[in-house]
Specification:
Number of domains: 2
CATH architecture of the largest domain: Up-down Bundle
Distance between the termini: 34 Å
Order of helices and strands: HHHHHHHEEHE
Helix content: 55-70%
Largest sheet: 3 strands, mixed
Radius of gyration: 25 Å
Shape: elongated
CATH class of the largest domain: Mainly Alpha
Length: about 300
Amino acid sequence: MQQNNSREHALLKISVYGAIIFSVTGIVIGLLVGAQMILFDGLYSLVSLGLSILSLIAARFISKHDINNYPFGKDKIEPLVVLIKYFVILVLVIASLISALMALASGGREVAVGIALIYSTLATVLCIGITYYLKKEANKVRSALLQAEANQWYMDTLVSVAVLIGFVISYLLNLFITTQFIVPFIDPIMVIAVSIYFIKVPIEEMSTALREILDMPPKGKMPDQIKQFIKVLARERDFDETIVRITKVGKTLWVEIDFVIKKEELASLTDQDQIREAIDRYLDQYPYQKWLTVSFTKDRKWAL
């Protein structure tokens, strides 16, 4: 666990340093060549920088145990930070979309294509490298914060690829006098296309984070698989009813199970612990920390 936290912190630092380089370079070159697409790339990296620092602070805070002030852990901080990150990104995307629509309506934008083409080529290569590395490590560490960082870089990669394609097209169109009038429209069109695509990414990620904050069941087959296992276990023991609650918050899988047993003799303490042990072993297949609560009652009202 401690090793994973240290690895998570190290990878978040890489994301921070990368965001510093991209934000400064993108903003400066975007202003110099007059390309809103490059400026958008730089501003996105600048926002990513602030959000990466926020993720790093959150990761360090979560790793410090404080059972007195946080008796149920700090898991909700992780989806809360993710929610904030993607909300800021959503605002940036919408603002860029509005600006590009205004530029398109006013006749487009002149861009120094040569410099923009060199920048976009280098940016694309570096973004692809960082995105691949972070995604691979995020799967190993099982960190929502690191996954959010990887998604940010993936979105930045898409921006860089779009910039590269757009400026390659602009360069080719500039070679022919009959098509030069189209060039000023390429930049705002690229921004509009990327912005429309990007809008769905933060909305989807915000939805996932919100599900965790509200303690909703995680998406996928896992909840049904766990409930089916508990159902079979209860049938084997001749229990009357089971009530199962499942949620995933951050790196922790929360499972609360209430067995209703109406016959006179309840399961002995030894039997109860054996049932808990069987459930705990079953949950080992899922790559999360576990918070398991198993209760036994004769009166159904204590399970609701």
